[in-house]
Amino acid sequence: MIQAMSRAFEDFPIGTRLVSTGYPITADAIMDFGRKFDPQIFHHDPDAAEKTLFGGLAASGWHTAAVSMRLFVDTMDVAGGIIGMGVDELKWPNAVRPGDELRLEIEILQARHSKSRPGYGIIRIRNVTKNQRDEVVQSFMANTMLPAREAGL
To answer: What pTM value is reported for the model?
Structure first.
């Protein structure tokens, strides 16, 4: 069986748009993440969450970010890894709820070879995470570094 090569910097010219597969969000996953990493009642206690601004259980923004990262890595498929250099304009305009299915839309805004790291490229991306109703649940811009084919990874 021939295995497809994973991607590198050269595979992401300016204007490239990618869409991930869907990722289901369960109440158990929301509560587990909330208890471990963001222990506010609207993330881990469904009954108490009913009496909050959310009016029910809602995923932590950091849970949404973690799921989005997973979708980003899987969709980009870069064997040598993608190094985050910074995130701008991180927003969570709508809550993620149990039963939502998230997908990530990636757009390459800028791309250039690194001046300080030969064999690597830097891309500026816009990542938008949406639910099954096409509502934006997270958005941000970021700079990332990834290997170029010449890096041999």
So the answer is: 0.92
